[in-house]
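ok so i was messing around last nite and threw this chain in just to see what happens. nothing serious, just curious
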Amino acid sequence: MSTQSTPTVIVTFIRHGESTDNLRSVWAGWKDAPLSNHAKALAKSLATTRFSAIYASPLKRALWTGRAVRDAQLDPKPYFEESPLLREQHFGAAEGNPWSWDQTAEMTLEEHFAKGLWPVLHERSQRFPDGESSDDLYARASKAIDELVMPHVWHAAKEGKTGVHIALASHGLCISELIPALLAKTGSEVHPGHKYRGLHNTAWTRATIEVEGAKEGEPLVFEESTPPKLRIQVTDINRHEHLSQVKRQGGGIGSAAHDPKQKDIRAFFGGGKLEEGRSASNARDEAEVEIH
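result:
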């Protein structure tokens, strides 16, 4: 494997800014909701990180976050594209409905659904009616890596380029499957489970990709049927230092405009104090929830 100091490609996974649904205990998958003011703080913190391309989920909370990051970049602005492959897990019939932590032991899941009850699901194969399971989401995430990330990797290697940096603005659950899907490109078949869950809103996680034999200024020749080996490392997880000075409006839902009268950010949900940036709306988007 190459001992190059600069990786061929760097991928930064960005979780969207806090939406109004993140302040409510509802399943928020494909349902759109306005953003609070986290995205501008993120964009400012990444302004000197030069991206070659930014891909974003078309759902507003991720799309606007991705655009904020792009707009803060120096000219010329990086390539920007929306991709439905980066949407959050689809919760089907549960979308927009309140979630609950517990299931009633005497009732089947189908009986819960029939009564309009939408509990946390703990099996990767389970899904709400008309929704996606975790396994479905992983399959979509794998396609996203194939279509959005890998072309940059192979193109950079063939052009003799290193340090190509792309960003994916997506959602907590989707990112938790995108990272394993990328790591699988090394040949690993072991899914890390919920290791990459529980990301803060606008937190970023970063991975580096090294192509065996790739060097700056030296185009690499290889057949697409037999690509070189990859070395992939997750170098940063859940980075959210930019949130330390963010303020929230007294009404509880943030906005893009800064209000000097806002209180120091502290999120409360269901009477419990939450660390800033920690989404409470998607129950399974918390690290302590086990998914098998």
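not much to say yet. Residues 20-31, 249-292 have pLDDT under 50 and may be disordered.
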